[in-house]
Amino acid sequence: xxxxxxxxxxxxxxxxxxxxxxxxxxxxxxxxxxxxxxxxxxxxxxxxxxxxxxxxxxxxxxxxxxxxxxxxxxxxxxxxxxxxxxxxxxxxxxxxxxxxxxxxxxxxxxxxxxxxxxxxxxxxxxxxxxxxxxxxxxxxxxxxxxxxxxxxxxxxxxxxxxxxxxxxxxxxxxxxxxxxxxxxxxxxxxxxxxxxxxxxxxxxxxxxxxxxxxxxxxxxxxxxxxxxxxxxxxxxxxxxxxxxxxxxxxxxxxxxxxxxxxxxxxxxxxxx
Length: 272
Prior knowledge:
There is one protein chain. The chain is α/β, with parallel strands linked by helices. An eight-stranded parallel β-barrel has the order 1-2-5-6-9-10-11-12, surrounded by eight helices. Strands 3-4 form a two-stranded antiparallel ribbon. Strands 7-8 form a two-stranded antiparallel sheet. The chain has one domain (6-270): Aldolase class I (TIM Barrel, Alpha-Beta Barrel), CATH 3.20.20.70. The radius of gyration is 17 Å and the shape is globular. Helices cover 38% and strands 21% of the residues. The mean pLDDT is 97. It is built from nine helices and 14 strands. Helix 1 (27-40) packs across helix 2 (60-73), helix 1 (27-40) runs parallel beside helix 8 (242-256) and helix 7 (209-219) runs parallel beside helix 8. The chain has helices at 27-40, 60-73, 93-97, 125-138, 149-161, 184-193, 209-219, 242-256, 263-270, and strands spanning 6-9, 44-47, 49-50, 56-57, 80-83, 106-110, 114-116, 119-121, 141-146, 168-174, 198-204, 222-225, 232-234, 237-238.
């Protein structure tokens, strides 16, 4: 099996300090959180940003400040910084695309519309074609986000159209209320359904984070953890940090004999 790439989703767009006191919101907090997560074993930082009031933002200057803080904190071992293009639910297409002007190495590419709790997260085929055009124009590596089984079919449709081209690094985001649950049977089905020349990772939401991470490691996939997806270390016990969640994955990976990729190894695996 390939070495394990660990992504840390350090902030997200849904939570606040009242729900999770250690959630990093400012650029400085995100820099420290990224530094600790990388030191623990993460090689990718999945990045949402906030404004001065702690609200989700897609403004370019907010992304720029966060990137600079992360690069400064991690200098000498700078992780892949993967921008979120999802933003907060309901964000306009133009705002979601705007931060890509900073030319991150990697960014998320959502493959379909879902119910997101009580809200609707819209990703039409015209949206996806616009995303593909911008990713290709700027030379950004996409991570294809799959929240539901039909999203794999959407990926294959865009491949047939020639809109998307191999290789395909996919991530299954399972357990979002309104989309596909994190049952292990769903993960098995999705992995078997991927097109050729695909690599994959899994992000389990809430209670699904740890069991899906363990199975992904055993199946040869990669893993995303972090406070964006799950604020608990165990039932009723809040996580102390993003790094604590990463450390657990590294410890389990070592126990099962799955080597963890360094930052440089991860860059070679998914950026080259």
